[in-house]
Amino acid sequence: MPYRDMRDYLAVLEQQNLLKRITHGVDHNWEVACLAKWMYQALPVEERFGFYFQNVKGTKIPVVTGALGGSPKSVAVALQCEVPEINVKVSNALRHTHKPKLVNSGVCQEVVFTGQQARLDSLPIVTWTPGKDKAPYLTTIVVTRDHDTEIPNMGVYRTMVGGPRSVVINLRRGRQGFRNVKTWTDKGKTAPIAWVIATEPAIHLATVANLPYGKDEMEFAGGLKGEPIDLVRCKTNDLHVPAMAEIIIEGEIAPGDVDTEGPFGEFAGYMGPVDKRPMAKITAITHRRDPIFYGYTSQMPPSESTTIQSLVNAGVILQMMRDKIGDQAVHDVWIDLTFGGMLGHGVVAITPQFPGHGKRVGRTIADITSLKRVTVVDADIDIRDPTHVDWAINSRFSPQRDTVVIDDCHVSIETDPSLRDARGNVMPGSKLVLDATEKIDSGPFSLPPKDMMMKALDVWKDCGLAEFKIPKRAKLRLEKS
Ligand SMILES: Cc1cc2nc3c(=O)[nH]c(=O)nc-3n(C[C@H](O)[C@H](O)[C@H](O)COP(=O)(O)O)c2cc1C
């Protein structure tokens, strides 16, 4: 059975010890963020968990963070599969989408505040880099719609609290949410906008997929969930939002309304620049009778944001390469979890069909995504194991022959400090492709034959040595030994 809402999912995470309830009172102005930072900065990925802060000072509303993106395991639980199946799950969901269903009512509107009563200070909005951020901000799903095509879009865009009924949204030129808003404001109309806080995990994960403009992420979310998503109409605008969400904030952006946003702690690990961004007026806040607040932990990597964006977009790239580009030699894709998802390092496993195939795949992926680095390896490498990928680079890659630098390609991320000059201007970005596939048959591996190694495991046990799980890297090597 798919999860009906965020609560269903949190219950399963808790059963699996991937979510911890904190009864100790915490302050959302600093303690929530600092505890979440310790979790990501100190614990190895397999020990990470989400936080359910039950007792948040000054509010009855609990705060959750790190639940979806605690680790790949939490994402697998969200998708009701195992970690190695995440790419397949994402690819299949893109192939079999479900159009959402408009329903008459939803729990997200059990309590409705409009006009002067819709106040952001009624919510425990977290300060994510306390001591350095300008203000608290929302990190959650943002819904907009194209005025002309009426196709909606979902993305996560940092939303700074400006006052009790106003926000400034980190909507940058080129972002699909920005394009949607422009289709209204260019005509002199106010653009509708809505924020969705804590809903079915499939919707959260679909939102961070980098899909082409005009593809409705809610249909992809239906594919991930395995059934159409129920939506309700907002109370003060025409947008449709998930019926099962905990909290919905509704707003409008008037033409020309901008304000200063930042500085804020950024995904690249530094404080980001200050700039003018669109402002929105809040027109309504609706929620369940006893709502839960959710905010993603981002900023210094690794983080929840790097985890969910990397895992979902690896599946998106795999499906693109196989179904759209038609290259069936591409087996698997992994994006390193320690940077900003699509902006970081992608590793691709292929079975090369001709000389130069590795470079071609690497170049294509670099071109059609915003990844900065693409490493291509053979299918006998565990792309999720950095030591195995490094071995492929050391033994199968010759820098002069196998490197491609793609120069002057625009990646609109002024938050990447390596793209800024001393005056803060953003320089054109470049990309690196490493083809670490074997170019010639390098001969047999320097390991004893597989049957001898397996027999030696009995001797290992007889010696009283501690048992271990054979790593995938070793299994792949033994297959060829
Ligand atoms: C926690 C978190 C915060 C994010 N903040 C921003 C942001 O402030 N601005 C932005 O452009 N993208 C941000 N992103 C990335 C986008 O949400 C993501 O790339 C999304 O797919 C963009 O949607 P779009 O391609 O429809 O514009 C954030 C992602 C996460 C998970």
Please count the helical segments.
Answer: 13
Radius of gyration: 23 Å
Shape: globular
Distance between the termini: 43 Å
Structural class: alpha+beta
Q: Share of helix among residues?
A: 25-40%
Taking the sheet with the most strands, its summary is: 10 strands, antiparallel
What are the low-pLDDT stretches, counting only 5+ consecutive residues below 50? none
Q: Bin the strand percentage.
A: 15-25%
**Count of strand segments:** 22
Bound molecules: flavin mononucleotide
Query: What is the arithmetic mean of pLDDT?
Result: 96
Q: Can you walk through the features of this model?
A:
With 481 residues, this protein is an alpha+beta fold. The chain has helices at 6-15, 31-42, 72-78, 86-95, 176-185, 201-207, 217-225, 304-324, 357-368, 386-396, 399-402, 450-462, 472-479; strands at residues 19-22, 50-53, 63-65, 101-102, 111-114, 137-138, 141-145, 152-156, 159-163, 166-169, 191-197, 230-233, 240-242, 247-253, 258-261, 275-287, 293-294, 330-335, 345-350, 373-378, 403-409, 429-435. Helix 2 links the parallel strand 1 (19-22) and strand 2. Flavin mononucleotide is lined by residues 139, 153, 155-158, 170, 172, 175-177, 208-210, 296, 298, 305, 308-309. Flavin mononucleotide (FMN) binds next to strand 8, helix 5 and helix 8.
